[in-house]
Fold this sequence. Notes:
It is built from 17 helices and no strands. It is an all-alpha fold. The protein has one domain (3-393): Up-down Bundle (Sodium/glucose cotransporter).
Amino acid sequence: xxxxxxxxxxxxxxxxxxxxxxxxxxxxxxxxxxxxxxxxxxxxxxxxxxxxxxxxxxxxxxxxxxxxxxxxxxxxxxxxxxxxxxxxxxxxxxxxxxxxxxxxxxxxxxxxxxxxxxxxxxxxxxxxxxxxxxxxxxxxxxxxxxxxxxxxxxxxxxxxxxxxxxxxxxxxxxxxxxxxxxxxxxxxxxxxxxxxxxxxxxxxxxxxxxxxxxxxxxxxxxxxxxxxxxxxxxxxxxxxxxxxxxxxxxxxxxxxxxxxxxxxxxxxxxxxxxxxxxxxxxxxxxxxxxxxxxxxxxxxxxxxxxxxxxxxxxxxxxxxxxxxxxxxxxxxxxxxxxxxxxxxxxxxxxxxxxxxxxxxxxxxxxxxxxxxxxxxxxxxxxxxxxxxxxxxxxxxxxxxxxxxxxxxxxxxxxxxxxxxxxxxxxxxxxxxxxxxxxxxxxxxxxxxxxxxxxxxxxxxxxxxxxxxxxxxxxxxx
Length: 477
């Protein structure tokens, strides 16, 4: 690999570690600072942190690859995600920020336990178990993506890529906690957006004279430029329904808990949605322009999901290519870091402080939080050793699992005072079970499993809550 490319990637890693060191010096003196940055994040950092931790490598590789193969019809997932993110900012963000502070909650399971005054801690335990188990696997998938990127783009071994990715992420998360994760996400989100906008513009500027990308795409298949080409109404619903998953993603909604004020949320929402719209549009453009460019140059590619990388290798200066590859690493690492911190937070607050050392001091809790991050990363590394292991197949359904298990519970716990503890438990279990059964029955090809899982969880919450005595007003922490 060219030295200029390696320099750019090295500079990116150095920047991430530098941010971790800065955050360690500034905001890790107690558990609130380490786990939520003392609820002091500004709107811009909150917005891009939520966006970058959400999109992951899917934005840089998966979506452009799907567009490359099938055209604009694959954009419905992005459309659904955009409106789902908007609803998340409007419905969840201000309420979750206010209620978690009032109830003294630093994690999502702690919020649910305090919200329903659950003296048995059963709801908090179930919620934290779901987070720990699924995010360990989810984090492993991110490490696999990092390992494969180093293998395919950098010419290094898969194991080397795995260790480099894990080491850098764990270093800045352990050092700087939530502030480090959020600041690195802000930088990573900026890098991702710039790369997604710049690359298709460069490709368009390198088209042969007399030809346009739109003409080439129409020659391939006129349906490539249609939102409804080659799809059905049920297919559109399934794709757009991805947006329902936002309400139940702990690594995203925890960012709302850390913004410095409810008054900052409208500004953060505008910044976050603008970033998302630009980035999604860029990813779609990469897929379309990439298909047109490689077709016009009679250069078919074996793996459509590498279109972003291959376009950069063909068109960009080695230094710019290093920036491009750093954007992919940014997408991967931003999600891993958020998941590791949320999982470590749950182990610390929802297990250690709750069952092991109720009177633990703040420094002890921060130390346990750091050790928990390392422990979860170690488990993820073990799971990631075999990139083709069957356990990683669960990750493709993790968005639906979290969305169905947590989404309705979070929404109604924030917005419906009549909801009960039994209703929350019923909704969480029902949503997860329906998703699993739907997948095992092979019905996902007909309708995305999040749709029936989300609906069933909603019905379970309402039915069980209404069957029980009306609860007292929401508990106060």
